[in-house]
Amino acid sequence: MAEAERNAARIFHVMREFFDSVDVLATPTCQVAPFEITTRYPREIDGTPMQDYLEWMGLPSVITMMGCPAISLPAAFTPDGRPVGIQLVGPHLREDRLLAIARAFEAVVDAGRAPEVDPTPQPAFVAVD
Fold it and tell me: In the chain, where does DSSP find H-type helix?
């Protein structure tokens, strides 16, 4: 437990120093575009096998461990219309700065086009692989 606390403190200080010279960190929201609802999680990403549901969500998990505020915004669409997000991360306790940057991002990025959705009701539960 003490080792984990030391590592968390080290990460906190590294990020504090990082944000001394950078306003915002921009990352993909996740490593892959949205996938079929029947797919539990991607089994591999760019040739790297994923062992479980949590592993493929590694990037957002790492951001959470930093203790910095983060926001995910729509950024673009894949050629077949699936949304792709960007995650903006700000300095510790600077949600005001992060929200201002997010608002500026939304003002210049036209990601508001909603993909066409089939309005046919779907079953609440589906079989997953």
Answer: 2-18, 58-65, 95-108
